[in-house]
Amino acid sequence: MEYLERRRALVDERLEAVVGGVEPDGLADEVGHTALSGGKRVRPTVTVLVCEAVGGEPSDAVDFGVGVELVHNASLVIDDIIDRSDVRRGVESAWAKYGYGPAIIGSDAQLGEAFALFSADPRAMQAVTEAMVELGEGEATELADRPGSEEEYMELARRKTGALFRAAAELGAIGAGADGVTVEAVGEYAERVGVAFQIRDDVLDETADPEELGKPTGQDDEMDRPSLLRVTDLDPEEANERAHDQSEAALEALSRIEVADEQAYEYLRDLAEFVVIREQ
C-alpha cells in the first residue's frame, strides 16, 4: 500500500497547491471544502498508474490526475444539490455548508481549474471534453429520460460514471505519450471499471451501513433515482454478478497493452477486482 500512498500523496500535494491558488479566499475555502475533504482519489490514481504502466513517470500525469479529480468533485457538488443530500464523505455537503449559490460557483471554479491543467495538451482536452459531454448526457438521462431496461441502465452507467473513468485512464496514457491503440485499450478498461463501480454503488445504497459508507443510504429509492436494482428485478447478489462481468471485461481490455511497469499494471488489475467487493 505504500506504493499507492506515494502516488496519492503526489496528487494530494498538487491538489492542495491548486486549491491554494484559487482567488478570492472565500472561493478557495469553498473549493477546498469539497476537493480536500477526503475521498478515495480513485480516478487520479488510475491516471498515474496507467501512465507508469505504459512507460511514463508519475510526474507526467499528476496534473492530469488532479484535473480529473476536480471535475469529479465538481460533479458531486451538483449531484448533492439535485439529491438534497446534506452529507458527503462524512462531512457537510457544499450546498448544506455554504448555500446553493456559493456551492454552484465553487463547482464552476473547480471545472475552470481543471481545464487550465488540461489545456497544455490538445489530446487531453479532447479526452476530457468527450467525457464531459457523456457525463452531461448521463445526468440528463437520469433526471428526465429514465432507463427502462437493463440495457438502457448500462448505457446510463457508462455515461454517468464510466466516461470519467475512461478519461482518467486515457489521460495517463496521453501523459506518457502512448499511441492511440494503447489509449483506446486503457480507456475501455477504465470505462468498464467505472460501470462496475456504479453497479456496486447501487448495491451499497440498498445494503450498506450509512456510517460506514460516509453518506446516506436509501437515496435511490427516496429520490426515485434509477439504479440497476430499481430498473430491473435483480437482487443485490445478481447485481453484483453484473459488476463482476464488467470487471472481467476490464481485465481483458487491460491485457491488450504493452506493459512497461509490471507493478503499476498489477495495481490496475487489483483495482478492477476491488471495485466489485468494496464496502465504501
TrEMBL record:
<dbReference type="GO" id="GO:0046872">
    <property type="term" value="F:metal ion binding"/>
</dbReference>
<dbReference type="GO" id="GO:0016740">
    <property type="term" value="F:transferase activity"/>
</dbReference>
<comment type="similarity">
    <text>Belongs to the FPP/GGPP synthase family.</text>
</comment>
<feature type="region of interest" description="Disordered">
    <location>
        <begin position="204"/>
        <end position="247"/>
    </location>
</feature>
<protein>
    <submittedName>
        <fullName>Polyprenyl synthetase family protein</fullName>
        <ecNumber>2.5.1.-</ecNumber>
    </submittedName>
</protein>
<dbReference type="InterPro" id="IPR008949">
    <property type="entry name" value="Isoprenoid_synthase_dom_sf"/>
</dbReference>
<dbReference type="GO" id="GO:0008299">
    <property type="term" value="P:isoprenoid biosynthetic process"/>
</dbReference>
<keyword id="KW-0479">Metal-binding</keyword>
<dbReference type="Pfam" id="PF00348">
    <property type="entry name" value="polyprenyl_synt"/>
</dbReference>
<dbReference type="InterPro" id="IPR033749">
    <property type="entry name" value="Polyprenyl_synt_CS"/>
</dbReference>
<keyword id="KW-0460">Magnesium</keyword>
<keyword id="KW-0414">Isoprene biosynthesis</keyword>
<keyword id="KW-0808">Transferase</keyword>
<dbReference type="InterPro" id="IPR000092">
    <property type="entry name" value="Polyprenyl_synt"/>
</dbReference>
